[in-house]
Structure formats: C-alpha cells, structure tokens
Amino acid sequence: MKLYQTLLACALACCATLTDAATLKIATIAPDGTAWMREMRAAGDAVKSATEGRVEIKFYPGGVMGDDATVLRKMKIGQLQGGAFTGGEASILTKDAQVYSLPFAFRNFNEIAKARTRLDPLLKQSFAKAGYELLGISGGGFAYLMSTRPIKSRDDLKSAKVWVPQGDKVAEMSFSAAGVSPIPLPLADVYTSLQTGLIDTAANTLSGALAFQWHTRIKHIVDLPLSYVVGIVVVDKKPFDALSEADRKAVESAFAASFARLEDINRKDNDSAREALKAQGISIDPPSEADRKNWEGLGAEVYQKALKSELSPEMGQALGEVLATLHGSAAK
User: Fold this and answer.
1) Is residue 102 within 8 Å of 298, Cβ to Cβ?
2) CB 94 within 8 Å of CB 126
3) In Å, how far are 19, 148, 200, 232 from 78, measured between CA atoms?
4) Nearest-5° angle of CA 308, CA 314, CA 315?
5) Summary mean pLDDT of the chain
6) pTM greater than 0.90 (yes/no)
7) pLDDT digits (tens, 9 = 90+) for 245-279
8) Residue 101 contacts residue 194 (beta carbons within 8 Å)
9) Is the pLDDT of residue 19 over 70?
C-alpha cells in the first residue's frame, strides 16, 4: 500500500511538473546558424537550465513562421508567444522602436553606447504599454546604403529603386524627404527583388549583407553610417507574466547575458564583413565632404518630422536631450 501511495505521489508530481511547464515560441527571420541564432539558442538553454525545465524557449528561424505581420497575427492567437524583429519592423508594436532608425542621428559606437543608456529603458516601457515584454535589445551595427549602381549623392538616389522595410515609417519618411518613392517589402523578399531588378538599392549592416546573401547582387556601398540597426526580442506579456517571478528573472537574465555577448560578436562580424565585401570586389567609398553635409542635412530634416509623428513625446524629449549632449543641439 505504501509503495502504491509513493508511486502515485511521484506520478502526480510529474504531472504537475508537466502542467506547470511553459513554452515560449519565438519566431525570427534570422537564418539558422548565424551568430544571432546561436546566442538566442544559448539563451534558451540557459533558461531551461535555470528554471529546471519549467520554462522552455522554442525558436523558429529563417522566416518559417512567415513575415512580421504573420508572426504578429500568430502571437495574437497564441500560436506564437514572441518574435525577433529589427527596430523598424517592431514599430508595428510601438512606434518608439524606430528611435535608432533615424538617419544620420548617431555617428559612431561611442555615441550609440551613451544614447542607449538613456533610451533603452524608455523603449522597454513603451513595449510594456503596448502589452509586450522586451527581453533584449542587441545592436546589429550601422546600416549603409548598398546598391547595384553607384550612389554618391542624394541626386543619384532619386533615380534609384530603393527598398524600405515594410511598416518602417521612419525609413519611408527618410527616403521620401530625399525625393525618392521607396518600395516597401518584407526583409525576406529583398534578395529576390535584387535579383529581379524590382529594387536596386537597400540598406543593411555589412555583416547583414553577407548573412542574407545580398553581397552577390550589390556592387557599391556608401561608406557613411545611415542608421543604427537593433535586434529586438519581445514576447506577449500575458504568458510572460504568468511565469513565477523567479522564472521571469531567469528569462531576463539569460537573454541579457546572450545579448551582451552578441553585441561583441556583431562588432567583430561587421569589421570582418567589411574586408570580405572588399575581397568580393564591392566598392565601399566615403562621400565627399559636401555630400556628407547634404546627407546629414537630410537627417536633421527627418529628425524634426519624426518628433511630430513617429515618436512618443517622452521618447522624443529624451532623444533630443541625448543628441544635444552628443552634438551640441537636438537638431544636430
């Protein structure tokens, strides 16, 4: 009898463990095997270990769950609990996600580091207000204009067929201000569109151009940081808040550690990618001083417009104060 009771108790305990276990399913367009996915999976392993199996993270890389709109729809019906997006793509959830997408707002990594100390916590709050938990922000590096044709000035850009991420209002605003009618497409469609000629110009990090195979199509890169690309991982707050406090902290800690490592990896990958792209015969040329000032003037124009429509008042004020500290004036 005692043996039966002991076995029954063990069985009930196992059932309880299975019932209490939570799986957070997260989709991303990032290809499997990339540094991004390696660190995401490392975070998932750390979560499972720290929570003793109570929480498991399951990833769907390479766009197998569809584009951003599809991922968001699946999140709303509970088929997915989270997604990994760029800042522009995440603007579907909160427009403040575009804060680092402003063209020519930041000139180097030191400026970005100072800005993120102030802006990242506000971004986390913005997602929380929208019903999402921001698990991590990873700097992917600076995006550069890339094209199948030489792009040396704003005039050259006017005749180009320029891609912008679908839903990225700041990117659309930026190119529209330059006199361009951009072509919005999901990130997954860019490579094919470069092949077919639907577009001939896009922007990405140097390592991103390699990861997504764009380097096989592009021939020219403007060596001037256009905007700063961030990778953002969010989950629906309902399943996240249903976890115990200890398990929530374990998830946050695991992603924070992995994303810190990813920051260093991305910096090194972008440095290596620059040399790899040159070796492929791709021209990486800085603009003239006159053209540089022309591009930066475009950035100042877009900044003023974004303050009015594309950022919350709180984020806009914080960004203005950051830029004033960095550049001497909010409008640079």
Assistant:
1) no
2) yes
3) 17, 41, 38, 20
4) 75
5) 89
6) no
7) 999 999 999 999 999 999 899 999 999 999 999 99
8) no
9) no
